[in-house]
Amino acid sequence: MQKSTKVIMWIIIGSIILLLIFLGIKLIFDKSWWWFFTPLIIELVFSAIGFTIWFITKKGSKKEETKPARISPEQAEIFINEDCLNKYAEYFDTFETRVSNEGTSGKPKTPVFHKFGKGYESGKQLHFMISLSEPDIRNELQQKDSETEEKFNERVSEALSKFAAEPEIFETEETETLPTGQVKTIRKKQTIAEKIKEEEAKEAEASEDI
Questions:
Q1: Do the Cβ atoms of 121 and 90 come closer than 8 Å?
Q2: Please, what sign has the CA dihedral across residues 82, 88, 91, 94?
Q3: pLDDT digit string (tens) for 70-111?
Q4: What is the pTM of this model?
Q5: How far from chain centre, in Å, is Cα 152?
Q6: For FRET with 102, which of 32, 40, 82, 180 sits at 20 to 30 Å CA-CA?
């Protein structure tokens, strides 16, 4: 028996005993019936208030616990097609679909459905993502007018990293030689997306120097 059920039972038993005591006082000492009806009315009022509060609290907690039902890749693609038409007045010219699992190693992963490719009307890259376990979590990206495909893919990687409940973080170590000749060790913690972004920035710098 749950703790809350036990508490309710003891309150009911206590209320009945209290009413019997007042009923006994009325019968034994020939008191007015108000000795019985007054505590009865008070108990009924407090019971109604208590039940209302309990019902609202329970309903609210159930609403919080309710999660969107898991969906299939086919259902996710239907949602994406609707979003594409409604938000962008666009549909795919060429596209690919896939499912990736996002999250930290050794922990539950988030299955994410992707549909991406080129829009028919605009010719721009589109990338839609939906969590199959929590379909309310979704993201859609469209290539900007002045944005290269590399920059667009970078935004896709950053958006995808947010689907993981706990992004995978690892420690990297780099060395730097100071003008004095001393070697300085730099340690930092990064997510995969941050590491990729840093490496791409370094490659871009190196190509500019050349």
A1: yes
A2: negative
A3: 899 999 999 998 887 788 788 888 999 999 988 766 667 889
A4: 0.49
A5: 25
A6: 82
Structural domain count, the chain: 3
77 lies in the same domain as 156: yes
Range of the domain at 31: 3-65
Residues 152 and 203 in one domain: no
Question: What's the chain's length in residues?
Answer: 210
Cβ neighbours for 95, distance < 8 A, ≥ 6 positions apart: 115, 116, 117, 118, 126
Q: Are residues 118 and 192 in the same domain?
A: no
Q: Tokens in use for 52?
A: 């209302």
End of a domain among 65, 85, 102? 65
8 A C-beta contact, residue 102 and residue 161: yes
Give the Cα-Cα-Cα angle 138, 140, 143 (nearest 5 degrees).
Answer: 160
- Find the angle CA(208)-CA(209)-CA(210) to the nearest 5 degrees: 90
Query: For residues 1 and 138, what is the distance between their CA atoms, to the nearest angstrom?
Result: 41
Count of H-run helices and E-run strands, the chain = 5, 6
User: What are the strands of the beta sheet with 92-102, ordered from one edge?
Assistant: 92-102, 110-119, 125-131, 138-142
pLDDT tens-place string over residues 127-136: 999 999 888 8
Cβ count within 10 A of residue 172: 12
Show the tokens assigned to 104: 């930290």
- Report residue 119 as tokens: 């829009």
